Request: fold
Amino acid sequence: MVRVSSWGRLNAEEHDARALTSTQDVARTLRESAPGIAYGLGRSYGDVCLNPGGTLWRTTGLDHFIAFDEITGVLVCEAGVVLRDIQRMTLPRGWSLPVTPGTQLVTVGGAIANDVHGKNHHKFGTFGDHVRSLKIVRTDGSELDCGPNLRPEYFAATVGGIGLTGFITQAEIQLRRVPGPWFETETVSFLNLDEFFALSIESDSGWEDSVSWIDCVGGGNGRGLFMRGNPVTVDAKPEPRRRSIAMPVVPPISMVNQMSLKAFNAAYFKINKHRSGKQLTHYEPFLYPLDNILDWNRMYGPHGFYQYQSVVPRENERDVTGAMLREIARSGQGSFLAVLKTFGERSPIGMLSFPRPGVTLALDFPNRGEETLKLLDRLDAIVREAGGRIYLAKDARMSIDMFESGYPRFPELQQYRDPGMSSAMSRRLLGN
Amino acid sequence: MRRILIVGATSAIAEQCARIWVKDSAVALTLVGRDREKIEALRVDLAVRSPHSVIHTETLDFLDPVAIAELAKRTSLDGPLDIVLIAHGNLPTQESSEQDLSIASSTLMLNGISPVLFAEAFAGLCAIADHGTLAIIGSVAGDRGRRANYVYGSAKALVAHYAAGLQHRFAETNVKVVLIKPGPTATPMTADLQQQGRRLARAEKVAAQIVKAIDTGKPVLYTPSIWQPIMFIIKHLPQRIFIKLKV
Ligand SMILES: Cc1cc2nc3c(=O)[nH]c(=O)nc-3n(C[C@H](O)[C@H](O)[C@H](O)COP(=O)(O)OP(=O)(O)OC[C@H]3O[C@@H](n4cnc5c(N)ncnc54)[C@H](O)[C@@H]3O)c2cc1C
Ligand SMILES: NC(=O)c1ccc[n+]([C@@H]2O[C@H](COP(=O)([O-])OP(=O)(O)OC[C@H]3O[C@@H](n4cnc5c(N)ncnc54)[C@H](OP(=O)(O)O)[C@@H]3O)[C@@H](O)[C@H]2O)c1
Reply:
């Protein structure tokens, strides 16, 4: 048995963790050790990838490429391949993953099971929109293929299906043509939510990528920085050297507190406010700004942290977001890492996919026990009232009611479930 | 194009070496294994990573001296090799070797005799060409016999002894021999240790050091390098102290 955490580091329970290294062995290992759940790089924040006391199947040894067609941009690979390795292999050949989350240190299987989104949701939808087919092994040893045109219902259950419909062994993904690794980027400051929404509408047509940092303690009305970018052609500019620093230890208490936060946010806003104008930025620091700080999640100290990510529908997004920000500011909790983004008009393909038209707010809360949980419940109430939902990839605590109101298609998932797949989250929210 | 041949190419450590080699530049690569399907999956992966590399596969019985000699002969037809890496091995528990002599026997054969036969076959080719680097993966377990794994360890000691002899033989030539001694590394071989929560070196890191040692022709590589001082101490501990240690 070995102690395993997810990214939020809320706990580190014992698991029977088995490393899969060859697709040949998957069926046998699943049959021998089910029930369990797949574990990619554990970049989910809550309990979606955990199974305390039970089996975890580690997927990162299943990291082989199977085919890549440089003419059509179709990539076939095993599910433990890390998105970073795809990007680094295909970008020099003029192809990129159309959708990646804010870190490229996630696996293909994890990206599908949470149907992840990126800064370009308004243009490219979710990761699942670009998956052409999947190979799945169930815990009884049977295998099946699915895709948008082959067992489409099974596919819709699996994309965003939080690992519950079977073990994904390989995926076929349509990449997109890009001019190279460079982005033209621009940072624009906004002083309140009205300005944010105006910038958002203005940017939707001309900018592929957009995301905002928002000050959740200082400015009151929601001041922040709107960052946008487009891939561009740049002739023969050498790629920057990759450097990383690490958070070497877990500090005894969280480094994120009221005082550090207020000062930091004010300074960050001030410095970047005047950085107007367009810049050339390499895709890695632009799309994955935190990936160079290894183990940054340790800064929240030994009790870990919750990430809260909600989406609320367009109708009253302005008021609802304002209400949430006021609630957070009043609580004196919250953190530097607060992100606001509008989603595009697409409805997602997965039965439990998170994105939907509206605005999404994501932020970290150092775990202060009851006090933090109560705040998150108050936020839930606002989100629920507005007809929104919470992202399962980030959640460790929402109630069954909150889940069922946010994900009305959950009963459809049940008939496609693999009875040998079970996680802390599935037991918490689906009863088994 | 550099010509590289890897015996036991599906080993996690060897696979990471291969990924580094194809990333640096296109190479002519021969992958040798026992399992057709696994070795083919590896070939396909490397071919996607490096479309300009020329990659062949070979499968054979790793304990068959005739098959090994034929393999060496076949590969010699395409000209001299720049690098030969011999990486295979297996690690059944020490208790199983104590209880079942056939396991003890296969452990000794696969980790001791087999790599020596491969090395000897390719050493012959290198000698004729007066060219090439022969790298063999031994282990820190070969440095001193200890109760936890002495059957496996003694096979690795045989490899070390053999490599030293080979280095002596090639001292005045352009052929280089590199003996690699990894410490505990996270690979399928150490699945049990990983399940017990032991922190092991990453295969990527070990592989990067191996590739570097092969480039420089370093005679003996401990990897990760911390194992050099550790094994120095362990080797030199007086017996009366050593036998009391729970290692
Ligand atoms: C810094 C940071 C930024 C992030 N930004 C974003 C963002 O912008 N957008 C976004 O959508 N998400 C974001 N995330 C969340 C992250 O993208 C998701 O949690 C992702 O699913 C993690 O992938 P993983 O490989 O670590 O999977 P894990 O977290 O290990 O697992 C996630 C789920 O996938 C399942 N799974 C994994 N492999 C398989 C398989 N082979 N077969 C079946 N099921 C499988 C697991 O069972 C689990 O249910 C971010 C996370 C971090 C740490
Ligand atoms: N991992 C460690 O902690 C560690 C420490 C010191 C030394 N080493 C040495 O490092 C080398 C590489 O091992 P690894 O850690 O990378 O382990 P690994 O991934 O488990 O690889 C073992 C390799 O040996 C092959 N093999 C096993 N039995 C075989 C047989 N009977 N016939 C032919 N091939 C056989 C395997 O082939 P299949 O893929 O077909 O099974 C595989 O290629 C070995 O020599 C090992 O002794 C490892």
Summary: Chain A touches chain B at residues 1-3, 16-19, 21-24, 61, 64-68, 70, 89 (CB under 8 Å). The pocket of NAP (ligand 2) is lined by residues B 8, 10-13, 33-35, 38, 62, 87-90, 110-111, 137, 139, 182, 184-185, 187-190 (CB under 6 Å). Chain A has 13 helices and 21 strands.
